[in-house]
Amino acid sequence: MTVRKPTMIMLMLYLVTVMCDSGSTLSARILPSQETGAKRDIEFSFVKGATGRTKDGVRVSTVMYNASDGIAVSATTEERGSPVRANKELRRRMVKAIKILGREPIREKDGKIVGTRVVIMFQPKRQQKAQFAVIWTDGSELHSIEAISLQHVLKLEGTF
Question: Rounded to a whole number, what is the distance in angstroms from the first to the last CA of the chain?
Fold first, then answer.
C-alpha cells in the first residue's frame, strides 16, 4: 500500500467507514488528498536567492522558497532587454509546454495591454514529474513562478 503525503491541492475531508471483523463500525477521517481540490493556508519561507546572467547575457534573478508543507517553489525574473524579446521567450516556453492551462493579457488600469500571463504544465529536463508555471511579461521583464503544485504556484503569485 502506498501512502501519499498530503499536498496543498488536497482539500476535502473524506469520511471513511470501515467494517471491523467484530461487526462494529469504525469511522476515520482521512487527511485531504491531492485530487480533492481542498484549500488550506500555505506559508512560504525564503531559502536562498541568486543573481547572474544566462549564457546569452540575459540578467536573471531567482528566489527559492519552501512552502509550509515542504513543496519547493521558485520565482525568477529575467531582464530581456525589450518587450519584443520578453514576448519571444514567453512564446518559446509556451511551445515547450505539455499543456497550456490559461492565457490572458495583463492590462493597466486604463485598459492598455502591457503584458501577457500564461499558466503552463511542463516537463523539466532530467525530472520525472511534470511541473507547473505561471509566466508573465511586464515590459522587457519576463517573470516566472514554478513548482510541482499548481496551487503553490498560484498562491505565491498572489503575494507579488
Answer: 40
What fold, for 44-157?
Answer: Protein Transport Mog1p; Chain A (3.40.1000)
Task: Read off the pLDDT of residues 23-34 as tens digits, 9 standing for 90 and up.
Answer: 322 222 223 334
**Residue 121 near residue 131 (C-beta atoms within 8 A):** yes
Which residue spans of the chain are classified as CATH 3.40.1000.10? 44-157
pLDDT value, residue 37: 52
CA dist 122 and 124 (Å) reads 6
pLDDT at 40: 64
The pLDDT-based confidence of 10 (bands split at 50, 70, 90) is very low
